Amino acid sequence: MSIELDFIKDMFDSIAPKYDFLNRFLSAGQDILWRKEMVSDSQIPNNSSVLDVACGTCDVSLEIKKQKGNTVKIFATDFSPNMLALGKDKIIKKRDGIMKKNETNISEKNMIDLVAGNALFLPFKDAFFDAVFIAFGIRNIMDKQGAIKSFYKVLKNGGTLAVLELTSPPEGLFRDIYLLYFKRLLPTIGTLFSKNSNAYHYLPNSVLNFPTPEKFATILLDSGFEMVNWKRMTLGIVTLFIAKKKPAL
Ligand SMILES: C[S@@+](CC[C@H](N)C(=O)[O-])C[C@H]1O[C@@H](n2cnc3c(N)ncnc32)[C@H](O)[C@@H]1O
Question: What is the pTM of this model?
Fold first, then answer.
């Protein structure tokens, strides 16, 4: 693995125990709503197979499960063992709750199938998925085009790609105030709770270096996607992109 990928993997391994708490706290609970909207806007058909890439602690997968129940088969992948372990605990907890309520038996794999893997070399068959999701993951991958290419590969023709990412709000007063919070306050709070100063100083930089929504939409179009739609959420601090895989000529 490259030095860059090792750095990212080690960083997420180290902040994993505090990741969910800090997500909720630093976004004032908005992250739950953003993922909810990502899943509902993707309009996943029944009887489909979907993949949650860079799944972390599995919040997107669990939201898909919540909205779609047993009508879709969910796979989730990440390269951080600690994130995956926490995701697995959450899946088991959720499954036990469902089993208790419905007095049924559900295997873990039937809930969400967790597979360790790198977004750049996804360990799945070509043209296997009806939808691929990536929430707050693509910004951490230097080779964005490589990752998008690997999403394209595992998607069926006409399949949906949904990307949710932290973005910089458009020019204006809100942007100035937000950047003050994001560059000054957030790293201090993040460092205090996670004890990882690198991670929460890296976070604002990774967002500021992320392409504008217009530019990222162009990257998707140039990578073989069509019907690329995007919308700013919460005044532009997050953007949701939804695109379809265009069959290769
Ligand atoms: C900010 S977290 C997002 C987790 C989750 N998707 C969510 O909505 O909270 C980013 C995740 O991307 C994973 N990640 C980053 N680069 C990756 C790569 N190249 N392959 C697989 N996972 C990666 C990290 O391990 C981490 O769990």
Answer: 0.94
